[in-house]
Amino acid sequence: MALLTSRGERISYAAGDTGFNLVWQSIELYLFFYYVEVLRLPLPVASSIFLIGAVVDWLADPTIGIVADRLSSRLPMRAWVLIGGPAVGLALALAFTDPGLHDPGLTLYVITGHVVLRLCYSLGNIPYAALTTRMSDIRAEHVVLTGLRMQGAALGGIIAALVYALVPTGGDDGARRFLTGAIVLGLLAQPCFLVTALGVRERLRPPLDTVGASPLAQLREFGVLFRQSPALRRLTVTIIASGLSITMVTKGILFLFKQIGHADLGYRAAIVPAVMLLVSVPGWTRLGGRLGRVPTLRVAIVLQLAALALAWACAGSLPLVIVTLSLAILAGCGMSLMFWALVPEIIAELEQRRHAGCAARVFALATTARKLGQALAPPAMAASLMLASDHSILPGLVAGACCAAAAGFLYCPVERAAGSALADHDPPAGRAKD
Q1: Angle of the 359-387 helix axis to the 215-228 helix axis, nearest 10
Q2: Is the pLDDT of residue 210 over 70?
Q3: How many domains, the chain?
Q4: Where are the transmembrane segments (predicted)?
Q5: What mean pLDDT value characterizes the chain?
Q6: HEC secondary structure over the chain
Q7: Do residues 13 and 199 make contact, with C-beta atoms less than 8 angstroms apart?
Q8: Residue 37 maps to a domain
Q9: What are phi and psi of 430, to 5 degrees?
Q10: pLDDT tens digit string along 78-106?
Q11: Residue 426: inside a domain, yes or no?
Q12: Is the per-residue pLDDT at 355 higher than 70?
């Protein structure tokens, strides 16, 4: 298969997600735990902060997508990575800084730090995600780029988990561990962003943006995108539900191992999602090429639900919990790879139909959907911790996997057959119309 991008360029692209995941793994795996166990925020307050962050994402991500699309002829997408990189590194350190305050000052500080961290992350990450469609217009290459990007993210996750595991606690309930880890990771991310900015070539010129410049016209454009593409609507629902389940599994690692009496093992187990992503992407990519992306997505969803149900049934056995949790994490890797691999062809279909650029907008919508699923995870976990008879996290994890299964089977994404248009034809036989 002939590809437009060189190996060095693809590695440069993946380096960007290594940098972003050094930051995001800190949010995904550790920040909720830090709020609850170190800062001692009540569970409802800590989970609500993540919902506030999601609201910020819903506003910021589309806005950044709009601006990036409109300025793409003058400011390349990769330049945004250099703009957002230093800012997100500083914001990460501030988010893990204990100000020594009491409520309401502590809660206000945490909310402010969380919002700033989200804004800085989106500033670089939304244009970075859209780079895929500017590097190549070959569908198979989009899958390759997505897979390498996820392996780069996995490498970042491994580094993040190792840093937090190796930093001494300092005898202060982990506060020093988290702050030191955040500072180190924020610094390590900067060379990764530089490699992407210098090593990626945006060889495809985006179509002229014909949307009016007024904010109202720009906001209406998102509604137009949803109306024009049933595939986008379906994929958005799948990303939200799958993102909820995947996030609950990763955020639940520290809580689960603490509940079964192996809290220290939880910090070591936190490296498993990143390692699993790094080693499993080639296998999931091959399976997706053989079965198709949507069938492979369904395989991963079923595997995750079955693994979590078994973990709940065998919660008293540490070896079985480790095995089933690893299988659930493996399934989450396949779910993520498949739904992200569907986004570029939706962009290609929409830009071909509309004769206008929308890559950053669509990736902003997809990223916002992913973050919505992530934001819903802490409240769902808090509900499980508070309402379950044994205050276990596992009932919540199973419920999240059921949500992903409902979306993946009852309102499944649409995968385009070769040579067809995504939204111009009815779904294949046996697949319900939108």
Answers
A1: 80
A2: no
A3: 1
A4: 12-35, 41-59, 79-96, 108-131, 143-166, 178-200, 235-257, 269-287, 299-318, 324-343
A5: 83
A6: CCCCCCHHHHHHHHHHHHHHHHHHHHHHHHHHHHHHHHCCCCHHHHHHHHHHHHHHHHHHHHHHHHHHHHCCCCCCHHHHHHHHHHHHHHHHHHHCCCCCCCCCHHHHHHHHHHHHHHHHHHHHHHHHHHHHHHHCCCHHHHHHHHHHHHHHHHHHHHHHHHHHHHCCCCCCCCHHHHHHHHHHHHHHHHHHHHHHHHHCCCCCCCCCCCCCCCHHHHHHHHHHHHHHCHHHHHHHHHHHHHHHHHHHHHHHHHHHHHHCCCHHHHHHHCCHHHHHHHHHHHHHHHHHHHHCHHHHHHHHHHHHHHHHHHHHHCCCCHHHHHHHHHHHHHHHHHHHHHHHHHHHHHHHHHHHHHCCCCHHHHHHHHHHHHHHHHHHHHHHHHHHHHHCCCCCCHHHHHHHHHHHHHHHHHCCCCCCCCCCCCCCCCCCCCCCCC
A7: yes
A8: yes
A9: 90, -5
A10: 889 999 999 999 999 999 998 888 888 99
A11: no
A12: no
172: pLDDT strictly greater than 60: no
Within 13 Å, how many C-alpha atoms sit on residue 50's CB side? 31
Task: In whole angstroms, give the CA distance from residue 361 to residue 208.
Answer: 14
Tokens of 336: 């993520």
Residue 342 C-alpha from the chain's centroid? 15
Residue 424 lies in a domain: no
- φ and ψ at 290, to 5 degrees? -85, -45
For residue 153, what is the domain's CATH number? 1.20.1250.20
Q: What is the pTM of this model?
A: 0.70
Helix axis angle, 230-259 relative to 215-228, nearest 10°? 90
Range of the domain at 314: 8-196+215-410
Q: Is residue 315 included in any domain, yes or no? A: yes
Which token pair is 127? 């244009």
